[in-house]
Design goal:
With about 110 residues, this protein is an all-alpha fold. The chain has one domain. The protein contains four helices and no strands. α1 packs antiparallel against α3.
Length: about 110
């Protein structure tokens, strides 16, 4: 499996599929927690009854958290991409003959 794209061109093989998959899974978890914790804190409220700040706060909230293309949505999309790569590594690991228990242990999914 080759990650393709214009990035680093990671080459995944039997000897590193579990390690790479686990790294993508761990980063997805870390970023998901980070985005989840910060999303609520990114909400802006109008300032002290200032009428101009009502429109400003609404637009800023749209850009930061509410729109489909908001910063929060883009970050969550990136997390989904990382999880997708981890799932591809899982599938590759199975194809290489690793057991579900070996995959779960490497990816930190159980015990």
């Amino acid at each position: 499996m080759d990650a393709g794209g214009t990035g680093t061109g990671i080459v995944v093989g039997k000897e590193n599929v579990l390690e790479i998959g686990a790294a993508f899974q761990a980063e997805a978890r870390r970023l998901d927690e980070l985005v989840g914790g910060l999303a609520e804190r990114m909400v802006t409220r109008p300032a002290l009854g200032d009428p101009a700040s009502v429109d400003y706060a609404e637009e800023l909230n749209q850009r930061l958290t509410l729109r489909e293309d908001s910063y929060t949505a883009r970050a969550r999309g990136y997390v989904a991409e990382l999880r997708g790569i981890a799932r591809q590594c899982e599938a590759s690991a199975r194809a290489y003959g690793f057991t579900d228990d070996e995959i779960a242990a490497a990816f930190g999914k159980g015990g």
